[in-house]
Amino acid sequence: MKGFGYFSAFLVGAVAGTAIGLLVAPAKGSETREKISETLDEFLSKHNIKLNRKEVGDLIDDLENAAE
Questions:
Q1: Mapped to the 3 state alphabet, what secondary structure does the chain carry?
Q2: Cα torsion angle, 41, 47, 48, 52, sign
Q3: CA 49 to CA 27: how far, in whole Å?
Q4: pLDDT attached to residue 2
Q5: Which of 35, 40, 48, 54 falls 20 to 30 Å from 14 in CA-CA distance?
Q6: What end-to-end distance do the CA atoms of the chain give, in Å?
């Protein structure tokens, strides 16, 4: 179980790093948010993680705040 925790932490870090990278990229805010949303949806589907739209939106908002 310990290995799964490390792996999960790594994946979350990778997603957060990608999101932060997209946030600081020179693109319009709406385009960046759309890219983050699509990437996060793909990641959650691939790893069979269930979040509703509000939880995904909250996660994106938290990542945006962390990037500032």
A1: CHHHHHHHHHHHHHHHHHHHHHHHCCCCHHHHHHHHHHHHHHHHHHCCCCCCHHHHHHHHHHHHHHHC
A2: negative
A3: 28
A4: 64
A5: 54
A6: 34
- Contact at 8 Å (CB) between 31 and 15? no
Q: What is the pLDDT of residues 19-66, one digit of tens each?
A: 777 777 676 778 877 887 788 778 878 888 777 778 777 877 777 777
Give pTM, 2 decimals: 0.43
Who has greater pLDDT, 1 or 65? Answer: 65
Structure tokens that stand for 22 in this block: 């997209």
CA separation for the pair 24, 44 (Å, rounded): 23
